[in-house]
TrEMBL record:
This is Transposase. Signal peptide: none annotated. Residues 27-250 form the Transposase IS701-like DDE domain. PANTHER family: TRANSPOSASE. Pfam families: DDE_5. It comes from the Bacteria. InterPro entries: IS701-like (IPR039365), IS701-like_DDE_dom (IPR038721), RNaseH-like_sf (IPR012337). SUPFAM superfamilies: Ribonuclease H-like.
Amino acid sequence: MAAAVSVEVVRWQALLGEGLGRVAGRFARVEPRRRAGRFVAGLLSGLSRVNCWTIAERVGERTPDGMQHLLSRASWDADGVRDDLRGWVLEHLADSDAVLVIDETGDLKKGTETVGVQRQYTGTAGRIENSQMSVFLTYSARRGHTLIDRELYLPQSWAEDPVRRERAGVPAGTGFATKSALALSMIIRALDAGTPAKWVTGDEAYGKDGAGLRDPLETREQAYVLAVACDHRVPGPSNVRVDELAGRLPKRAWQKLSAGPGAKGHRYYLWTRIRLNPAGKSGHHWALMRRNQRTGETAFYRCYSPHPASLPELARIAGRRWTIEETFQTGKELTGLDQHQVRTWTSWYRWTTLVMLAHAFLAIASAHARADTTPGLISLTRNEIRHLYSKLVIEPAYTTIDTLGWSQWRRRHQHRAKTSHYQRRHQDHDLQLEY
């Protein structure tokens, strides 16, 4: 057993080295390139809190200055790394039936200075909160799924405020774009790069946008299954609501089909579809409906394909949307996707891109592990691979000297902060006495 694990560790080191090698040319100098590798290792090290301080301490750097410089001022191309990352993922996971999944996530924030932050609804909290929103694209294939693109949502209040934009380093040519527009730009970028993907799927925040997302996808003859709200109106002479249409269907119209495997087995629902004929549009269009057998709750989708598609296939694609939810969960729990403490545009893109690289490593490693499973054991998951990599590779390299050195650095930093604080309080007190 120990020998088998040792072999796996060697493979993981080679695989991560392969990924870092793919992006090496995007760094102007060797120092930031090597530091980026250490940064990714720190993201994989199982830290309870992930930031430049904790990462630098875990990987043996004496202060967090180098990691902070990597995210803010070092010369490297985060978008180029993203493109190379996508190519690396496709090399290991690509298949012709893959799905591009779009969704957004929110990070709760305090204050008003972090780029893009404002009070807005976020599914993370399930309510309106002070938060920063971003849109992601996941590549979901038979062998695995991981993030391949990201865009930060810049609210209109930010887009129209030149002072805040300048302080946060927002590029001059960046204007307001809806989340659907950001999603479309990522989908087009992936497809133009030759990403094999038969379908696109997403929730109703994207399905409701006909002109901004559905129509452009149809123009490219890109098939999609996009959720819509219950009050979505079906195109046609009657312009009826989709939930009213579902209520008219007889019981025999519904079929029990799987939306794909879940943690506890296949996820069965009742499914049906109605053929649509939107005026002036080619291809095949449907209103797809999914009903929970126990609660009767019904979900609705608009579907398009340039070629015929069966009801079981549409149900399977609709069920693939959960992969981005799992990706967000593992990205946050395993690689610190939501733990960034950066305020500027450049730092956010750099942090997020390196997190994506770390997560892609776990996704690819777990895909290879599933192909070589030991009888009597489940295959190695992303969680287990991250745990073993941290314990067997990263922690042994961390020495007592490093621990003591960081203790002294933290106490020195805290002493300076305390001294500065007391000096300001003393100065404020003196000014009050003068008046």
